[in-house]
Design a protein that fits this description.
The structure holds two protein chains of two kinds. By secondary structure, chain A is mainly α. Chain A contains three helices and no strands. The longest helix of chain A is centred in the last third of the chain and has 37 residues, at 39-75. Helix content of chain B is 75%, strand content 0%. The longest helix of chain B has 24 residues, at 138-161. The chains are: A mainly alpha, B mainly alpha. The interface between A and B is medium-sized, with 31 and 32 residues.
């Protein structure tokens, strides 16, 4: 059987394939203790983490932009 | 460029990078997907659930792996081990359904074919005293192989030692290479350096531990 770390890494890569980045990140986090010395793993993990952060930040900014537009209409 | 533009540009760059990773690992991901699916089936079988249909579907999707011989030995061994465990969980006997017996025979077929496809290397040597040494012995091949390996490892060591001040820094980096790239030369060279350091009074326990981890990753060779 696959070890906990291997299975998590495997599922994380499969989630990346399906562009499910948040899902991939959660599985990378589970696998992280088992692959701390693996540079390739760390690269994929950190890239995914950064991408999820960027997407989250973009989501917030897009909401802010929308609120601003609504305000213009209210006073316009 | 606004903050949103910058973030969108970074988002696109990161997505492109991860897409490339997936593209380059496409074949490996397909194998991982199959192994992961089989692992899930194994867990269900372990819980006593009926996995006859699941394992039948798995064979239908992946049987060509056996005939195409596209898998690495480590992957094939892994799958065979998983299938054997599932077979034990299913517990086939004369009262088992036709479907279960078919699954059992498929697992046997997989195991047998795997055994036949694995190359077998048998080393034999003659008694040491009874026959005089021929001019060219098989051992001379092993010596030239070792010399070639030693020279490759020397080159590898020189590459890594070039920018370092201490042999421990070289060892650290070689162990990293052994783990991340599953490099056999780096693994053997690391073991050699550890033994050398031990003989010279260094504390080598942490490096032995790292070597064992690297060796485990090398044997699995999965990622």
């Amino acid at each position: 059987m696959l070890s906990v770390g291997e299975k998590a890494y495997c599922v994380a890569l499969l989630a990346l394939k399906n562009k499910e980045y948040a899902n991939a990140l959660s599985f990378f986090e589970k696998a992280a203790p088992y692959f701390s010395n693996n540079k390739e793993f760390t690269l994929y993990f950190e890239t995914t983490r950064l991408l999820v952060e960027v997407k989250s930040k973009l989501g917030t900014l897009e909401v802010d932009d929308k609120l601003e537009i609504e305000e213009i209409f209210t006073h316009g | 460029m606004s903050q949103t533009d910058s973030l969108q540009s970074l988002e696109s760059l990161l997505e492109t990078f991860l897409d490339r990773v997936v593209f380059l690992k496409e074949k490996k991901l397909h194998v991982l997907d199959g192994i992961n699916r089989l692992d899930d089936i194994g867990l269900l079988a372990n819980q006593g659930k009926d996995v006859t249909d699941d394992i039948g579907d798995w064979f239908a999707a992946h049987n060509k792996w056996l005939t195409d011989r596209t898998l690495k030995d480590t992957e094939l061994n892994r799958i065979t081990g998983m299938l054997s465990k599932i077979k034990r969980e299913i517990n086939i006997d004369d009262n088992s359904s036709m479907a279960e017996q078919k699954i059992s025979s498929e697992i046997d077929r997989w195991s047998n074919k795997k055994e036949h496809s694995a190359p077998i290397l048998t080393l034999k040597r003659k008694p040491e005293t009874s026959i005089p040494k021929p001019t060219t012995t098989p051992s001379s091949d092993s010596i030239s192989l070792f010399v070639r390996r030693l020279s490759k490892m020397t080159a590898l060591f020189m590459d890594y030692a070039n920018s370092k001040n201490h042999i421990l820094s070289v060892l650290e980096e070689l162990l990293q290479k052994s783990s991340t790239e599953t490099n056999k030369d780096a693994l053997i060279l690391s073991a050699f350096i550890i033994y050398y350091l031990k003989q010279n009074g260094y504390k080598v326990e942490p490096y032995v531990k790292k070597l064992k981890e690297a060796e485990t990753l090398y044997k699995k060779g999965m990622f």
